[in-house]
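pasting for the record
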Amino acid sequence: MADIFDVIADGTRRDILRLLLDRSSAGQNGTSVSQIVHELGVSQPTVSKHLKVLREAELVSVREEGQHRYYSLSPEPLDEIDDWIVPFLAADEDVAALTTASSLPDSAAHAADVVGRAAASAKHALENALRKLPGR
């Protein structure tokens, strides 16, 4: 399988993923190649080439109905990116906490830091758990 970072490095593939996310959020059960071509304004061969890469990376699933293929987002492989980037986001939160904490008493700053870290960790764990539920 291709490195997930290489797969999402291409802007057209990110546009396709965003389109599929938006459509799934709107309750659509799959998006045809022709709909993707129309929405993005790129050629059908270009879309097909990128969909092949996304399929191989397991970021999209395909459902066939007759001669039509409908693509849906499969976000599970993005967990690898999420796991990689969260520590960097936490580092940003630490810097923000330090600048805010200077105006708080030490005990309040420490409590705020502990609560903030716990909330961020719980949010991350909950989002990962929800993504793994069937039908999500």
